[in-house]
Structure formats: structure tokens, C-alpha cells
Design a protein that fits this description.
heterodimer, B: five-stranded parallel beta sheet, 18 strands, binds flavin-adenine dinucleotide, binds adenosine monophosphate, ETF_a/FixB (chain B), electron transport (chain B), FAD (chain B)
Chain lengths: 252, 309
Amino acid sequence: MKVLVPVKRVIDYNVKVRVKADGSGVDLANVKMSMNPFDEIAVEEAIRLKEAGKADEVVAVSIGVKQAQETLRTALAMGADRAILVIAAEDVHTDVEPLAVAKIIKGIVDEEQPGLVLCGKQAIDNDMNATGQMLAALLGWSQGTFASEVDIEGDTAKVTREVDGGLQTISVKMPTVVTVDLRLNEPRYASLPNIMKAKKKPLDEKTAADYGVDVTPRLEVVSTVEPAARAAGEIVGSVDELVTKLKEAGAI
Amino acid sequence: MAVLLLAEVNDGVLSLDATAKAVSAAAKLGDVTVLCAGGSAADAAAEAAKIAGVSKVLCAEDATLGHRLAESTAALIVSLADDYIHIVAPATTDAKNVLPRVAALLDVMVISDASGVVDSDTFERPIYAGNAVQTVKSSDATKVVSFRTSTFDAAGEQAAAPVENIGAAENPGLSEWVEDKVAASDRPELTSAGVVVSGGRGVGSEDDFALIEALADKLGAAVGASRAAVDSGFAPNDWQVGQTGKVVAPDLYIAVGISGAIQHLAGMKDSKIIVAINKDEDAPIFQVADYGLVADLFAAVPELTEKLG
Ligand SMILES: Cc1cc2nc3c(=O)[nH]c(=O)nc-3n(C[C@H](O)[C@H](O)[C@H](O)COP(=O)(O)OP(=O)(O)OC[C@H]3O[C@@H](n4cnc5c(N)ncnc54)[C@H](O)[C@@H]3O)c2cc1C
Ligand SMILES: Nc1ncnc2c1ncn2[C@@H]1O[C@H](COP(=O)(O)O)[C@@H](O)[C@H]1O
């Protein structure tokens, strides 16, 4: 079985986000970018499936600007076998919408015929939480979202999902799209030798047009602003003072 | 203009708070029809019919719709979609599972976690863990939107609107439910509680989380946790508050042994009053706290619990 892992290049989760003064978005010029943290978990899971003999090839794909090459090299250094970069934007500030991303990945799935697509649950930049579900819809496949456990048993997979009420386990037909949550695994770091080896692994370059996908956004960004800041608070000296203040504020 | 709202129904029970908050957001868009779908849904439909602003309820009871499996629920919604301009739901894990699937089947984008309605095409939503708020205008024929419940007030009550029974769509037969692991609790539900007490890595162990729970029980509060506390096994996953957990905005939020990473703040910084108890005076949580107490939680929390008595 081949496993396809879509990985997104996003602002590093430790970087302080700055909204651009003109309201067009968040400043991404000269900012540290990394692989979306959920996608690292997806890559890790794919590699573990390969190590367990349940998968024979792991293909990482990324859609966006040319610089997403670096993200794919990280996936290759972690252990993916090859990578596909689909260039769909020129400016690092252009975010390709989940619907267009899902359509492009569908094109890749049609060519590559994987048995499993492992996405992240959510990209930490647009916080959409949509691409995996959209891809499953376009393919007519089952979906197992927000997975904290995945167990492939022949032509079905058992997926334990993190839901509002706790945990839900479902059984989905293969092929399937799984979106991974934080507690599925702990991703490995790429070792230096593997980083060197990754440079020689195949990385194909395509464009959105190769898949006949129009990436024109459906959502026009009207404005991007900073959220309202909270007024400064105070430090209290003791539990008694805290209780008094909370009573004064009518909070208890 | 007509709006179809997917109600939050679990095992036949309506989640009234989440659904009523989504109704108040949806009412700004047009005439609201609520869809209650599930293996059993009649009781939920009867209850939803009494939410002020609901003009009709569709009740779809069918075994294939049980446990809110995405594939069958999405197929049902798509079969109804022609009659509606907006298809909306509260931004729960169930809705986030289903709505993007619906949107893709309709060839439209989804607008996740909207925190504001500007007009019928235009919505506000937080991005980058709430570090920015974006206003987006949709050019799609159908708008598929989930609403962040923490920013809308629940709609009130009305005399019951009519309920119409409908069938399920053809079951795609792609998935089956196996089991739920849901911890029963007498505490209020996290996303609707007026008071939330959350513990972080600083609490140190699952056993010591009892300190947090005792304080919560004294206040009639729900219990939350940081990701670090959940990852460390101190607390179950459904207690996680944050960018990738639950978003809460109670009247009072008490953060204990939580440093205040931006991913945690994303889930609680709209709370009315924030209290932080942390032994590190430089912890970022103090920057959003109305009242900060620099103290060892193992002394301060029991004392606070006692003095609230
Ligand atoms: C993709 C992604 C998504 C994430 N999503 C979330 C999310 O949804 N929710 C979330 O919470 N986090 C999330 N995180 C994790 C987040 O970045 C932080 O790692 C996490 O919030 C830290 O949890 P914490 O504050 O409990 O732990 P720490 O940062 O370790 O802080 C523990 C605090 O406890 C204090 N402390 C220790 N002992 C005591 C004591 N005896 N008395 C008083 N204080 C004490 C310490 O001073 C410290 O400030 C996410 C991270 C990523 C990368
Ligand atoms: N541009 C992209 N390139 C590759 N994968 C993506 C891209 N956008 C989204 N994804 C995948 O879809 C997941 C969810 O993203 P989103 O729906 O944008 O929150 C991510 O974790 C990735 O696995």
C-alpha cells in the first residue's frame, strides 16, 4: 500500500504573528516557516506504517509556493520516499484554499492510487480544519478525522477520534482519508545523515494547471486585523485578596 | 433567504446550548430551518422547535444516521441543499467533521469557526490561533459556515415551530460506528459553563488534578486542561482548551499551573474574567489575567477552595 501525506508549509508555531499594517494578512516575509505540526505527526504515522510492513511507499506532497520544497525535504529526511511539489502560488502570502488543495490532491490520488491519505487535522495558519474531509468527499472515500489511533486491518481501518464528548472509534472502508490529531504519536527528528540522504530523494515539480485545478479563491479577504487586546490586570498578594477582588467583581 | 442549521444531536439528545447559540448567529442570515439527524432524533427535534427564531425543524431518524457518521450525514445535507443559501452548524467536532465534506460535495468553500456575521456573504473568523481576525466574503452560491459558539449568545424560547419528518439519503456505506468512550460527569459542560477551572502541566499528575476538580466543584465549574496536561495523561482529551481543543468564554476562567502559550490562550482569552495561579511571575498567562496570583498551586488552590466555602 502506498501512503500519501499532504504537508503544508506554515509559520513556525513558536513565531510571534504580526498582522500587516495594510490589513491584507499576516506578515510572512523573513519569518521562520516550518512543517505544519499536525503534518509532522502524519508523516511519522506513515513512516511507522512502512516500518511495520503495512505500507510500502510514503509520498509527501505540498501545494503552494516554491519554498515548500524545504518542507518536503523535511518529510523526506524524516523518512518519506519521494515528494511532489505542486506550485500554485508565487507570493508567500498567498494561501491556497482547502477546496483547491483538495482538488489538486485528488488529481495526485488519481495518478498515484494510494490506499491511504494521512492529512493533518488543521493547518495552524488558516485554522480551517477542512482539507482532509473535502478530499474524502471529492474522492467518494470514507474519512476518519481527528485520529488519536489508527489500526489498519485489511480492507478496513479502525480509527479512534478525539471528539467533544471524549473518544469515538469507527471502522472505515479502505481506501480512506485520515486526519491526525496531536496525540497519535510523537514525531521523530530527522538525523543529520538522513537530512543528507533526503537531498538525493526524488522531488517532482508540478503546477496546479497540470491537474486542471483553478486555484482562484472563493473567499475574498476583506480585512485582517489584530484581535482586541485585553486591558491590563493586576497581581494580587494573597488568596484572601483574590477572593475579595473576585467578590467585588461579582465573579463569585 | 433560507438557512439550514445542523443541530448538535448526540445519541438522540439535543445539545441545546450549542444549537441555540448557532441559531442566534444563523438568524442574522435568514429564515432558520433546523435539521435534527440521528438514529433517534424526535426528542431533539421537539426541543429544537422551541428555540426562538427557528421556523421549522426537519427530523431525520434513521439507523444509518446514528453516531453522526460524516458520510451519511453529509449525503443527507447535500440532498436538502438546493433549498438553502446557507448551511450552518455550531463549530463542534461533529460539525467540523461533516461540513467540509458537504461543502466539497457542493463545490463550495467552507467557512470554519466564524466568530461574526457581517452580512449574508461576509464573515469574521479568527486565524493563526486567534492572533488575527480575518473578514472574508464568499462568492459561492451556497455558504457553508460553522459558528464559534463562544461568541454568540444562546437564542431564547418560543412556542414550538412545526416539525417535519424526513428520510435519510442513500447510505454511502463507507463507515461504521464501533464504540464511544465518554466519561459521565455531573459537572457542567465545558463550552457552556459559566465558570471553568483549568489545570496545566504544573499540576504534576493525574492524582493531583483532584485539587483542580475540588476547586471546580466548589464553584460549580467545568474542568479544563492545557494540552500539556492532556498529553501527560493528567486529564482526558475532551478537557483540552485551546487552538486545537475547545474554545470557551465563561464569566470566570481560572488557569492553574498553565504557562499561557498562545495555543492555549486561543481557547480562553475571550473569557470575561481571567484568574491565573502560577509560581513563575514571568509566565505569559499573567499578561491576559485580570487577577494574577504568584504562588505555589499546591498551597494556593486548597486555600482558595477552602475560603470559597
Ligand atoms: C499545533 C499545536 C497545537 C496546540 N494546541 C494546544 C491547545 O489546543 N491547547 C493548549 O493548551 N496547548 C496547545 N498546544 C501546546 C502549547 O504550545 C503549550 O505547549 C501548552 O499549552 C503548555 O501547557 P502548560 O501551560 O500546561 O505547560 P507548561 O508550558 O509547561 O507550563 C506549566 C506552568 O506551570 C507552572 N507551575 C509549575 N509548577 C507549579 C506549581 N507548583 N505552582 C504553580 N505553578 C506551577 C510553571 O511555572 C509553568 O508556567 C499546541 C501546540 C501545538 C504545536
Ligand atoms: N497547501 C497545502 N499543501 C499540502 N497539504 C495541505 C495544504 N493545505 C492543507 N493541507 C493538508 O490539510 C490539512 C488540514 O489543513 P486545513 O484544512 O487548511 O486546516 C493539513 O494539515 C495538511 O495535511
